[in-house]
Write a structure and sequence with these properties.
Radius of gyration: 13 Å
Structural class: mainly beta
Distance between the termini: 40 Å
């Protein structure tokens, strides 16, 4: 079955950077579009970024455009989210998604 495992979250100061990873298994990774979502307390889960199968086509929410970069390594069945210039409002649990499935999430906290 589809398995998605996020890692790389943590506590970072405003202006700092983190790189999230999503290790995928149980499906044809290279043939699947992949997405990152996030959810903060009291808010609905929101789409952050999307990447197509070849990693050429991407989409970013306006709130992260220019600061976050989504990428993938089809040889490693892994997707990434490079997050730079982090802001306190980026604090959330970040989830990767594919094939209508979700990982368990990784917590990102931006605070001084």
């Amino acid at each position: 079955q589809v398995q998605l495992v996020e890692s790389g979250g943590g506590l970072v100061q405003p202006g700092g950077s983190l790189r999230l990873s999503c290790a995928a298994s149980g499906f044809a990774f290279r043939d699947s579009g992949m997405s990152w979502y996030r959810q903060s307390p009291g808010n609905e889960r929101e789409l952050v970024a999307v990447i197509n199968t070849f990693g050429i086509g991407t989409y970013y929410a306006d709130s992260v455009k220019g600061r976050f970069t989504i990428s993938r390594d089809n040889a490693k069945n892994t997707m990434y989210l490079q997050m730079n210039s982090l802001k306190p409002e980026d604090t959330a649990v970040y989830y990767c998604s594919a094939k209508d499935s979700w990982g368990q999430g990784t917590q990102v906290t931006v605070s001084s």
